[in-house]
Amino acid sequence: QVQLVESGGGLVQPGGSLRLSCAASGFTLDYYAIGWFRQAPGKEREGVSCISSSDGSTYYADSVKGRFTISRDNAKNTVYLQMNSLKPEDTAVYYCATDETGFCGGIFGYWGQGTQVTVSS
Question: How many CB atoms lie within 10 A of CB 90?
């Protein structure tokens, strides 16, 4: 079974932090680029961050740059998204997805089920 599972979402106050995890089972993430996406109700899905498989290059949407950090631990077959200084506008369902080309910006195939992040006071 090929599966991606996101975890770490929850309710946090503005200015708080969360760390999301994207764990793979049934395959290894070594040769995939991994992207994080989010979608809020009534809004289009947007790319948040991505990390490549080759040199570990990272990319961030302007809206999260300087606040979010993506990383990967191939030994644990897991990719993380550290989210700091959270704002209410960050509220969304967050998804991770694979790009088998190994480069960010390709076609993303496998998707996780999503984890809810709510930033509210």
Answer: 22
* Cα 91 from Cα 73, distance rounded (Å): 26
Pairwise CA distance, residues 54 & 85, whole Å: 29
Got the DSSP string for the chain?
A: --EEEEE--EEE-TT--EEEEEEEESS-STTSEEEEEEE-TTS--EEEEEE-SSS--EEE-TTTTTTEEEEEEGGGTEEEEEE-S--GGG-EEEEEEEETTSSTTS----B---EEEEE--
- Residue ranges, the chain, pLDDT below 70: none
Rounded to 5 degrees, φ, ψ at 33 are: -80, 145
Taking only Cα atoms into account, the Rg of the chain, rounded to an integer number of angstroms, comes to 13
Task: Judge contact between 29 and 23, C-beta under 8 A.
Answer: no
What pLDDT score does 1 carry? 78
